[in-house]
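Usage

Read records sequentially. Each one opens with the input sequence:
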Amino acid sequence: MTPFTITRRVEFGDTDMAGIMHFSNFFRFMEVAESDFLRSLGLSVSWLEGGVKWGFPRVSAACDYAKPAKFQDVLTVAVSVEKVGKKSVSYTFAFGNQRGESLATGRITAVFCRATGSDQIEALDIPPDIRAKLEGQP
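and closes with the structure output:
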Protein backbone atom coordinates (compact mmCIF):
# COMPACT_ATOMS: atom_id res chain seq x y z
CA MET A 1 0.00 0.00 0.00
CA THR A 2 1.22 3.52 -0.80
CA PRO A 3 2.12 5.45 2.38
CA PHE A 4 -0.34 8.12 3.54
CA THR A 5 1.50 11.45 3.70
CA ILE A 6 0.96 14.73 5.52
CA THR A 7 3.05 17.87 5.66
CA ARG A 8 3.48 20.02 8.71
CA ARG A 9 5.64 23.04 9.46
CA VAL A 10 7.95 23.08 12.50
CA GLU A 11 6.67 26.02 14.55
CA PHE A 12 8.70 28.06 17.05
CA GLY A 13 6.94 26.37 19.96
CA ASP A 14 8.09 22.96 18.65
CA THR A 15 11.76 23.90 19.05
CA ASP A 16 14.37 24.43 21.71
CA MET A 17 16.60 27.51 22.09
CA ALA A 18 18.81 26.30 19.21
CA GLY A 19 15.83 26.21 16.85
CA ILE A 20 15.85 22.40 16.69
CA MET A 21 12.58 20.50 17.09
CA HIS A 22 12.42 18.87 20.51
CA PHE A 23 12.51 15.07 20.27
CA SER A 24 9.12 14.69 21.97
CA ASN A 25 7.38 16.66 19.22
CA PHE A 26 8.11 13.91 16.70
CA PHE A 27 5.60 11.84 18.70
CA ARG A 28 3.00 14.62 18.41
CA PHE A 29 3.56 14.78 14.66
CA MET A 30 3.18 10.96 14.46
CA GLU A 31 -0.11 11.17 16.34
CA VAL A 32 -1.45 13.83 13.95
CA ALA A 33 -0.38 11.74 10.95
CA GLU A 34 -2.00 8.62 12.42
CA SER A 35 -5.26 10.47 13.12
CA ASP A 36 -5.31 11.95 9.60
CA PHE A 37 -4.59 8.52 8.10
CA LEU A 38 -7.42 6.88 10.05
CA ARG A 39 -9.79 9.72 9.14
CA SER A 40 -8.95 9.16 5.45
CA LEU A 41 -10.21 5.58 5.91
CA GLY A 42 -13.41 6.68 7.66
CA LEU A 43 -11.99 5.56 11.02
CA SER A 44 -10.83 7.29 14.18
CA VAL A 45 -8.40 6.68 16.99
CA SER A 46 -11.28 7.07 19.48
CA TRP A 47 -15.07 7.15 19.11
CA LEU A 48 -18.37 6.62 20.92
CA GLU A 49 -20.86 4.17 19.41
CA GLY A 50 -23.93 2.65 21.03
CA GLY A 51 -23.00 4.20 24.35
CA VAL A 52 -19.62 2.40 24.27
CA LYS A 53 -16.22 4.10 23.97
CA TRP A 54 -14.03 2.41 21.33
CA GLY A 55 -10.50 3.18 20.26
CA PHE A 56 -6.91 2.35 19.50
CA PRO A 57 -4.80 3.33 22.53
CA ARG A 58 -1.05 3.11 21.99
CA VAL A 59 0.90 0.36 23.69
CA SER A 60 4.28 1.16 22.16
CA ALA A 61 5.94 4.20 20.59
CA ALA A 62 9.52 4.77 19.46
CA CYS A 63 11.49 7.11 17.23
CA ASP A 64 15.02 6.94 15.83
CA TYR A 65 16.57 10.25 14.81
CA ALA A 66 19.03 10.75 11.95
CA LYS A 67 19.08 14.55 11.47
CA PRO A 68 17.46 17.47 13.30
CA ALA A 69 14.25 19.13 12.18
CA LYS A 70 14.59 22.90 12.42
CA PHE A 71 12.34 25.90 12.96
CA GLN A 72 10.25 26.61 9.84
CA ASP A 73 11.16 23.31 8.12
CA VAL A 74 8.20 21.78 6.31
CA LEU A 75 8.21 18.13 7.27
CA THR A 76 6.69 15.28 5.34
CA VAL A 77 5.41 12.45 7.53
CA ALA A 78 4.66 9.25 5.60
CA VAL A 79 2.52 6.70 7.47
CA SER A 80 2.63 3.02 6.52
CA VAL A 81 0.76 0.13 8.08
CA GLU A 82 3.53 -2.24 9.07
CA LYS A 83 1.38 -5.04 10.46
CA VAL A 84 -2.24 -5.72 11.35
CA GLY A 85 -2.35 -8.36 14.07
CA LYS A 86 -5.31 -10.02 15.75
CA LYS A 87 -5.86 -7.13 18.18
CA SER A 88 -3.20 -4.59 17.21
CA VAL A 89 -1.99 -2.44 14.36
CA SER A 90 1.60 -1.24 13.96
CA TYR A 91 2.58 1.81 11.92
CA THR A 92 5.88 3.22 10.71
CA PHE A 93 6.43 6.94 10.17
CA ALA A 94 9.12 8.29 7.85
CA PHE A 95 10.06 11.94 8.46
CA GLY A 96 11.65 14.05 5.75
CA ASN A 97 12.19 17.74 5.10
CA GLN A 98 11.76 20.01 2.09
CA ARG A 99 15.40 19.38 1.11
CA GLY A 100 14.66 15.65 0.67
CA GLU A 101 16.64 14.66 3.77
CA SER A 102 15.51 11.71 5.88
CA LEU A 103 15.22 12.93 9.47
CA ALA A 104 13.68 10.18 11.57
CA THR A 105 11.76 6.92 11.60
CA GLY A 106 9.03 6.33 14.15
CA ARG A 107 6.85 3.40 15.14
CA ILE A 108 3.56 3.12 16.98
CA THR A 109 1.59 0.05 17.96
CA ALA A 110 -2.04 0.49 19.02
CA VAL A 111 -4.55 -2.07 20.29
CA PHE A 112 -8.26 -2.15 19.47
CA CYS A 113 -10.15 -1.66 22.75
CA ARG A 114 -13.42 -0.74 24.34
CA ALA A 115 -13.91 0.97 27.66
CA THR A 116 -15.98 -1.27 29.91
CA GLY A 117 -16.13 1.04 32.89
CA SER A 118 -14.69 4.24 34.24
CA ASP A 119 -11.23 2.68 34.55
CA GLN A 120 -11.54 -0.60 32.65
CA ILE A 121 -10.25 -1.16 29.12
CA GLU A 122 -10.68 -4.44 27.27
CA ALA A 123 -8.58 -5.44 24.24
CA LEU A 124 -10.63 -7.07 21.47
CA ASP A 125 -10.04 -8.61 18.06
CA ILE A 126 -10.06 -5.98 15.33
CA PRO A 127 -13.45 -6.27 13.57
CA PRO A 128 -13.31 -7.48 9.93
CA ASP A 129 -14.57 -4.16 8.48
CA ILE A 130 -11.91 -2.14 10.33
CA ARG A 131 -9.23 -4.75 9.51
CA ALA A 132 -10.08 -4.54 5.79
CA LYS A 133 -9.67 -0.75 5.80
CA LEU A 134 -6.35 -0.94 7.65
CA GLU A 135 -5.10 -3.56 5.21
CA GLY A 136 -6.08 -1.39 2.25
CA GLN A 137 -8.89 -3.60 1.02
CA PRO A 138 -11.97 -2.06 -0.64
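Summary fields computed downstream for this record:
- Strands lie at 4-9, 46-49, 52-55, 58-65, 74-84, 88-96, 102-111, 113-115, 121-123.
- The chain has one domain: 4-134.
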